[in-house]
Amino acid sequence: MTDPNHPTDPSPQGDPADPADPNRPGDPNRPIGPDHPDHLREPVPPSHPYYQELEFLTHREVPVRFAVRYGEDHRPPGRPGVLARRAILGTGSQVLQYRLVTSAQGDPHAYGLLEREVEAAVALERRYGGAKFGAVFARIVGFDLTAAEPFVLYRPPTGRPLSEWAGRLGAEDQERVTGQLAMAVRLLAEAGLVHRAIAPDTVRWDGARVRLCEPYAVLRAGEAREPFGGAPWASPEQRAGQGAADPRDDLWSVAELAYHLIAGRPDRGEGPPADLADYRRLAALGQSGLFAARAADRPHPAELMRLLHVPDPLATGAGAADPLDRWRTAYDQQIARKRAASGGAPPGAAPHREAEEPPPPAQRPTRPSLRDRIFGGGGDPFGPVAPVAPAPPEPVPLPPSRSRMCPHCLLPVEYDERLLVTIDTKGNRIPLDLSAERRPGHVADALRKAYHLCPHTVDGDEEHELPVPYLTNGEPLSVALVGSSSVGKTHLLAAMLGEVELGGLEPYGLKCRPLNPEAHRAYLRERVQSLKDGRQLGRTGQQTFARFADGLLVQAGAAQPRPVVFFDLAGEDLAQDGEVGRFLMGVDAFVFVLDPLRALRLPGLDPVREQSGLRRRDLGDEAFSTVLNRIPRQRGGLVAAPAALAVNKSDLVRFEPVVDRWLGRALPGRHDPAALRDESRDAYAFLAQHASAAWLKPFDDCADCTLHFVAATGGQARGDRFPHGARPRRVLAPLLSLFALCGLLPGAEPTEGIVR
Description:
The protein is α+β, with helices and mostly antiparallel strands.
């Protein structure tokens, strides 16, 4: 006779002792991987048309292949665009497959949800899969996000939904369910995740333990809440999509489930149940604030576990030491070294300014700086000047403003109406004469689209010109992307400017306009739109003269707009110490683009290296070294120009916990120096552990250098296309860091005392 308090699962479970039983459940603590006896190590043709082959990656990103039989499709609730079906791998291992159907892939949000689910499931499996308490989560078997229909595989659930147990569990089992749910939320919170789908139909109980459903609605703690769920199971803030996701959102769901199990009916979901006092076993939960409408008024998961007298598996010991901590300490030491060498102040301190005294009259003249050699004069043109000799005062022209320096030839350019031109579709330069135009609006519009010839072109040099707004606005900022061929510089720049075009800088108080409308439209059409359409961009060709790829006018509030120009040269040009790279001596800021395939000693990257024909290099990036050896240095031997080291293609290593911590999150909506420092420390530690010291040369050599995890495309190309489109991640982080260091970002402290 069946015990009514312990009903059996209607799904066939088979005999776990019979290896030939096709319905036998797998060991929940043993993942299906390449060592599984059913794994096809060699391609084998299916023995029957009913069988197919299925290739996927395990949670450790090990590729495996199985013969597979599929069941019937059905649409799981709460997952639009996704079909679910049972499948049998090999000779009997059952799995559940959730796949994104082709018709739903036009919605990038649908793909993003599946991608986010996989990342959360892998993170939980890697963190807790080896522990018995990890069975409270859906156990991932594998995934393939690059398949024609991307999918994720899970072990089938056991037990029955809690909706079938309401009012039927004894007091002891009710306490066990509530305690295990609290523990599950505690484990999720430690991983920085908010499940958001804890409800009677999505949580199962098998008489011994609960099991949460797949994390298809998961958000990272601190991310903006997205509306999800219904009353009473989702909290009021979650249902409305207000504020930031908080692990205590899930505790609301736990409280409502506890009430449902005891009362046998759901509550209204607007606050503490009206009859809460009638249930003594809920008194402690009510007194703790667990039913509070606001997450901030509820206890934290660890506090709830103490209240319920549930052992905390994360508090039993100090746990394993994070191997990256030693490298984070090394980062702090490097920052202190560079600050001491350059005379700078530590982050957060007031800018360091040394007292300046005029040299005595007999002092020997100092060696002229690069600025002096370019513009003439000596010493600091903005500092106090000591009298040299009693002589009649003569008008001495001020050195030309650096804001009018040509970024190509590094010579000063004064605005001259006689040098104005327009450029037709064939590239011909046509003189522009506005002397007869009396309408100011027409003049302004013509100048917005016009160019100014550089007067310093000499025989043998390529004639070049500057957009007129480059000369008529605030101090320009030139940014060069540095890296060898195929590291993704062109894709990263296109992704950056695509995000800018979509308004990505506006939350930071910045407005952007094209530096030249025609050139900007051409760049958007040829580069940005092609990338948005999922096409792989062609390699940047070598040049005989360095021209910037695109330019913007960036305005912070009511301040004068500043021109920002971006240089994207071929890796071969950057790795050679030739004339084409001479403009580097005048570049204001650098983005060093690092390729994990070349840098990281991670075996999981070997299959991708083999496919792409790239090899790992312990000697670092040749372009990094060549460029850094060419840039002027300041006191202490450090490069004065601000820099950012962007770990591009980070999607290749996104399941590494430290990468997942950053790449899986959207950028904050405001400049956050503390988060910028934390990401830099983590990225430095990650590179220091998995790459040779040569790859950190930009950080070592530049006085101010931040580090970032970015992904320009979000996936690998197949042929000349990205199968599911380009999905940039955090590509504006390096640019925002440079803007902050260069005084262009509102509320950020610019770098002091840059000597060029």
